[in-house]
């Protein structure tokens, strides 16, 4: 994909830029990406932030939840995304079990995402013990994005994939978690599947950019899963995921058309084949062993 002059004019998005956007009330656009082509699409669409989410576990790796995905699997995807991005701010998701045990574990994992994969920042889920892990990673010099509300890594403990903060106490807890993550130094927080009224209440209490996914319109920005918004993924579509394209149907149509042409022997056509100069073809025929005297093509 070649860069247009407009692409070249776009400057890489920085933490300062994101804070400025929040201050100016400019909506921040974030999308997930999991490989080089999806990163190139995010770049061409001029989004502000890209997340290599652990949702990759389900969208591209075929697991049935985000829990099994490993650090190595996500690092490989982050590297591919990094190679496809120039301007968006790149966040790598710390997978389940890669940061909870100790500050040392959290720092070591975050360092891999920055050092090996070239991420600008990492994201971790939940308040509680994750607040201290976020603080430790930030103290080690790596920007951290928090994630509250529905935190898929611990969905079982939350009673499943459902909106969070639907009682006064739970809503207050979501807001407190966000405030704690902000106090720990997070540069931004994802609010996932939180009632819009709860987000409205939280917004004036927070100073850092809040990026919503199923959290209503009052956040500073929105994030969606690439496969959900383009209609690539065949699995469950959450209520909050609007679809702007039906890419999967188009992909199946294309592969089916290819398959029909192979079976009907109409592909490849003359425009898809290479040729050899006629004089070389003639020489090749001369070189060809006489089928009557030579039993094997190995005699060539
Ligand atoms: O993994 C992911 O894609 C996420 C977003 C939904 C925020 O965490």
Percentage of residues in DSSP E strands: 5-15%
C-alpha termini separation: 44 Å
**How many beta-strand segments?**
8
Output the number of helix runs: 12
Low-confidence stretches: none
User: Which small-molecule ligands are present, each listed once?
Assistant: 3-methyl-2-oxobutanoic acid
Fraction of residues in helices? Answer: 40-55%
Q: Which shape, going by the Cα principal axes? A: elongated
Strand pairing plus helix content: what structural class? alpha/beta
Order of helices and strands: HHEHEHHEHEHEHEHEEHHH
Largest sheet: 8 strands, parallel, barrel
Mean pLDDT: 94
Strand order of the largest sheet: 1-2-3-4-5-6-7-8
- Cα Rg: 25 Å
Q: Can you describe what's shown?
A:
The protein has 300 residues and is α/β, with parallel strands linked by helices. Helices cover 41% and strands 12% of the residues. An eight-stranded parallel beta barrel has the order 1-2-3-4-5-6-7-8, surrounded by six helices. α7 runs parallel beside α8. The longest helix has 17 residues, at 168-184. It is elongated, with a radius of gyration of 25 Å. The model has no long low-confidence stretch (mean pLDDT 94). It binds 3-methyl-2-oxobutanoic acid. 3-methyl-2-oxobutanoic acid binds next to β6.
